[in-house]
Amino acid sequence: QLTLQESGPGLVKPSETLSLTCTVSGGSISSNGHYWAWIRQPPGKGLEWLANIHYTGSTYYNPSLKSRVTISVDTSTDQFSLKLRSVTAADMAVYYCARLEVDYFYYMDVWGKGTTVTVSS
Amino acid sequence: QSALTQPPSASGSPGQSVTISCTGTSSDVGGYNYVSWYQQHPGKAPKLIIYGVTKRPSGVPDRFSGSKSGNTASLTVSGLQAEDEAEYYCCSYVGSVTYVFGTGTKVTVL
C-alpha cells in the first residue's frame, strides 16, 4: 500500500525559504502514470494546489506562486521536495503531498497526513 | 486561476440527501470531465470520494454520487449518516496538469 509522508521544519522565519520533503513508501516514485503534488491549507481555509512533478522532472506550478516555488524529485530515494522562498505569514498552512493519477483521469488519489508550517520570527 | 465556487454550508437529517454544487467556468469544470471531490474530517487529510465527475474509488459507499452540467459539478450524498459530517472540496483539472480547488462546503448532519 502506497503511503506518503511529509517532513520538514515546522517553524520558518519570515523572508526565509520553506523546504519540505515527501517520502513515498510502498511503491516507486518512477511511475509514468503519476505526477506528485504539493497542496496546502491555511488555518480555517480551503485547499490550494501548489505544484506537480513527474519522475522525469517535468514540472507544473500554480501561476500565483510560480515565482517563489520550486518542486524537485529524487528518484534514488523516492522523494520529492518543495521550496517556497520569501515566506510570509500568509504561507502558514498545513502542507500536504499527494499522488496524482494522470493516465485517464486527473485526480489526487493518495495523500500524506500533512505537516504544519508556522511562519514566525 | 480563481477558486471554484461552493456553498459554505449544507445540512440534512440522517437518511436524507444533500447536494453540493461546484461552479467554475468553461476553462475548468466546463472544459474537462476531470472533476474530483474530496472529503475532509477535522484534523485529517482529504480523502478522494469521486473522480472523473461520476466515478467512485473502491471502498467509497455508493451513497456518494457526482454529476456535471455545463460549468457546474455536483456531489450528492444520499442516506446521510453521522460520519458524513465533514468538509467537502471539489477540484477541477484546468489543463497542462494544473488544478484548481473549490472553496469548500461544510456538511452538517442534523
What's the SSE blueprint?
The complex is a heterodimer of chains A (121) and B (110).
Chain A: E1 3-7, E2 11-12, E3 18-25, E4 34-41, E5 48-53, E6 59-61, E7 69-74, E8 79-84, E9 93-101, E10 107-111, E11 115-119
Parallel strand pairs in A: 2-11
Antiparallel strand pairs in A: 1-3, 3-8, 4-5, 4-9, 5-6, 7-8, 9-10, 9-11
Chain B: E1 9-12, E2 18-23, E3 35-40, E4 47-50, E5 64-69, E6 72-77, E7 86-93, E8 99-101, E9 105-109
Parallel strand pairs in B: 1-9
Antiparallel strand pairs in B: 2-6, 3-4, 3-7, 5-6, 7-8, 7-9
Describe this structure in words.
The complex is a heterodimer of chains A (121) and B (110). With 121 residues, chain A is mainly β. Helices cover 0% and strands 52% of the residues of chain A. Chain A has strands spanning 3-7, 11-12, 18-25, 34-41, 48-53, 59-61, 69-74, 79-84, 93-101, 107-111, 115-119. In chain A, strand 7 and strand 8 form a beta hairpin. The radius of gyration of chain A is 14 Å and the shape is globular. Chain B is built from no helices and nine strands. At the A-B interface, strand 4, strand 5, strand 9 and strand 10 of A face strand 7 and strand 8 of B.
